[in-house]
Each structure stands twice: as structure tokens, then as C-alpha cells.
Amino acid sequence: MAEELELERISEAEWLLPRSGAMRVPARVIADEETIAQLRQDTAEKREWNALRQLRDVACLPGIVGEALALPDVHPGYGFPIGGVAAFDATDGVIVVGGVGFDINCGVRLLATPLDRAALESRVDDVAKDLYNTVPAGIGPEGNLRLPLSEIDSLLQQGASYIIERGYGLAEDIEFIEENGRIDGADPGTVSAVAKQRQFRQVGTLGAGNHYLEVQEVEQILDREAAEAYGLSEGQIVISIHTGSRALGHQIGQDYLKVMEEASRKYNIPVSERELVCAPITSPEGARYLSAIACGANCAFANRQVITHLIRSVLHRVFGMSPSSVRTVYDIGHNNAKFEQHTIAGEVRRLLVHRKGSTRAFGPGCAESPAAYRDVGHPTLVGGTMGTASYVMRGTELGMTKTFGSGIHGAGRALSRKKAAKKYWGEDVQSDLANHGIILRAHSTRGIAEEAPGAYKDVEQVVEAATRSGIGRPVARLVPIIVIKG
Questions:
Q1: CB burial class (10 A; 0-12, 13-18, 19+) of residue 268?
Q2: Contact in structure between 449 and 426 (CB atoms under 8 Å)
Q3: Which of 72, 24, 183 is nearest to 406 (CA)?
Q4: E strands, 363-433, where?
Q5: Residues ≥6 apart with Cβ < 8 Å to 358
Q6: Phi, psi of 107 (to 5 degrees)
Q7: Spatial distance between the Cα atoms of 477 and 219, rounded to a whole number of angstroms
Q8: How many CA atoms lie within 13 A of 322 on its CB side?
Q9: What are the tens digits of pLDDT across the range 138-154?
Q10: Does the annotation mark 342 as catalytic?
């Protein structure tokens, strides 16, 4: 098995896994040397939890086009590696559960405020306390927006628009949300009653795990043209929201794991790992799952919209700030499967692009970007750790051809949550952050340990690898001031 996973270096930050065995296409890894060394070590030690093996398995799936891709934040996931990208022909390809995962449209929204560091510092403790008390977080909290169960279907169809129409946001937010906050084709009938029951009290909640709310300072501008388009400047206070479709998305994943297991057998599709179960895109099972994904994605857009409203309410209480002065820079997901047009060998083809722990990173000139960003490409939002930094990046023309317009979504884990909890102590992490001027408010000390900065890769190396490969350009470096965790 090891010889099938021998990587060949093809550029400064790229390695190729040549096609062999059952692989239908080659695989490409974009990463720094430290990440490649870890992938090779996992292979040599024949670890079951192996991102390179998972990448190879993705390359074996029917209808895959181009290459199976792993981006610099790659680490093992369920079926697909996290940081994985794969595109499938819309006619003869498949839709794969592991290519989307159990937190459908988990993503990041970035808000820009008129505050600078000095203005925030005068009330920083008040802001931290109010955000902690206002934005529900942790496992199983109930949201401030109590929807009747009968209205969940409307939310799943309309996404962020449904929320804004009920007074939770501004009409101008919509323009700066990926897909304008609503993915077409969402049929609530493809989502189980159990999934809806689990969600109707959780709209507007942050959740736990790696989800967070961060108040950040724009420490450095690295691309002035793009930063000007995005309305970002050095010293500015911004706020990042990282969360997804909560219990509904997880239940959709669980429900369709069973459906796709049966579909894989029905259509005689061999799979090497349970989470790679799949169905032809054109099959009834595939169509139902795609619709359910759209519902989950719309739920996530709505969730981040409610949290945006709650943040605006906090800033109004503390600073007297009007809601319109807190601007949505962009909202983009990183667990999705979407139909897109891409050029393959000179031919424009309709593909279903799976991005698992990777984000759409469309470069300059793409119609999918907001008009204000079209000349530079839309922002991509790269989460680091609560003790280091995050980045705003943008896509490139080269990335459009090399990675189907995909980019990194974060630093990527270096340790599993279990290993991190054994290595770190939550109170110590919180104390260390405080010594570095970072206020952490969390609902779980174990959760703090699991999300310790040391549990993640070096975000600087990850961003550098993406930059060297040409698939993305850094625009701004953000550093945390207040962190809210579940």
C-alpha cells in the first residue's frame, strides 16, 4: 500500500500522487514541507486515520474530473480529508456524503465596524461580557429566535432572506453573502422531521467545537487594492463568526449516510470507507441529497444572520452604534457541494464541486462575486487559532484553473480533540491567552483544551503555502482581542 502513496514534488509547494491502481485521476497536495512530512509519516506507520490515503480513495470515485486535491490545511476527516476538493462531472459523476460532511455550510462571516483598538479598549470587558451573555453558545443551547416548527420549512427554502424579512438584519447584508444567502433547489421535504425538530430552537446559536465568535483587530494590510475594495484598514476592529447548520446539518448527514449506503450498493459503486458512500448525481437519491444539502446550507446562512443581528445589538448597547454601521464584509461556507462551470482541457464543463473544509475562492472577474469585489475577487476567510491570527485572502486566476477556484479555510488541526484534551489544560490555556491580552469567554474548559492554539498547525505556514502555490493572496492579517467559545 505504501508504494501507492509515494508523493512526487512538482513545485515549491505542490506534490503529485500519480494515478495508480483504482485511481481514476491523479491527486495533488498543496502544502508546506512540514505537512508533507506528516503525511508521509502517517503512511509509513500505516495509520488508519490517514489524509493521504483518504485523498487517494477520493481519486477512485466515479466521474471525478481533473485531480483530487488537498490544500495546505489538510488533515484527516471522515471519508474526504479536511482541506479536500473534488469535482465530478454533472452527468456521470457522484455526490458523496464525506465530501460535504456533517456540518453543512459551516462557514465564516466577517463584520467590519467603525471602531479602532483604542475605542474598543475603553469598553472591552463590557463587550466581552455582553457578547458572551447574548450569543447562545455551547452544546444544545436554545436561540433567541424561537421559530414555530411550522416555519422551519420557510427558513430552509429562503435562508438569510427569511431572517432579514423578520427584522434580524439589513437588506444590504444579502449582497455580501455567498449565493446571496440562499441556495436554490432546497426542498424541505428531503429533510427528516427529526432534523427539523432538532433545529427549530437552535437558530442563532454558535454551537461548540471549533466554532467561535472573535473580535479582532486588522493588524496588517497585505494587499491594499483588495483591502480598499473590502473596506478594511489597519487598526480597524472586525468581528468573525464561525458556525454552521448546527443540529439540522448533522442530522441530514446521519440520515443520508444510510440512504447513500443503500444507493452505493444499488448502483454497484465500490467504496473504501463508510463516509465515501455516494450516489449518481442524476439518480433520485442523489437529487434528494443535493436538495437536503441546500436546505442545510440555507439554515447555516440564516444562523449566521441571526448572530450578526445579536452582535449589532451588543454594539448598540455598549457604544450606541447604529446597526447599519456594522457592515457585512462577506459570508462564505466551507463544507458544500455546488454546481459550477469550469474549464477542463479547454472545454467548459458543468461540475459538482465538493469542498470539505475548503472554501470557494473565485478570482477577479467572476460574476458570482459581489459587484464591489468583482475586480479583485471575493474575500476568503481563513480562521487561525484563538491565540494566533486569522487572515482575509482572495482568490486568483491561477486558482480558478488549479483548484476549481478553491482556497484554504483555516489553519487545520495538528492534534485530534482527544489528544489535545490530554495535552492541554483549559484553565492554563485561558490564563496564557489573558497574559497575551486576549479575553476568552467559554462555556466548557474541556472545549478550551480541545481548541488550544497548539492543537492547530501554524496558520502562517498554511497561508504561505497557499500563497506560494498561487491559489490565493493574503489581504489582511487579523489578531484576536475577544474570543467567545462554546
A1: exposed
A2: yes
A3: 72
A4: 379-382, 390-395, 406-408
A5: 71, 73, 83, 84, 85, 334, 406, 407, 408, 409
A6: -165, -175
A7: 6
A8: 3
A9: 776 666 676 777 789 99
A10: no
Element (H, E) at 248: helix 246-266
Identity at 325, one-letter amino acid code:
S
Say if CB 329 and CB 232 are below 8 A apart. Answer: yes
pLDDT band at 92 (very low <50, low <70, confident <90, very high): very high
Among 204, 430, 367, 415, CA closest to 300: 204
* Cβ contacts of 418 within 8 Å, gap of 6 or more: none
The pLDDT assigned to 26 comes to 98
Given the residues 242, 409, 436, 443, select the one marked as catalytic: 409
Q: Which residues pair with 30 in a beta bridge?
A: 14
DSSP string for 132-199: HHHS--SSSPPPSS---GGGHHHHHHHTHHHHHHTTSS-GGGGGGBGGGG--TT--GGGS-HHHHHHH
Q: What are the tens digits of pLDDT across the range 153-182?
A: 999 999 999 999 999 999 999 999 999 999
Grid cell at residue 189? 421535504
- The pLDDT of residue 3 is 44
Helix (H, G, I), strand (E, B) or coil at 118: helix
Do residues 14 and 469 touch, judged by C-beta distance below 8 A? yes
Tracing cell 481563513 back to the chain, one arrives at 382
Question: CA-CA distances (angstroms) from residue 467 to 257, 374, 411?
Answer: 36, 20, 14
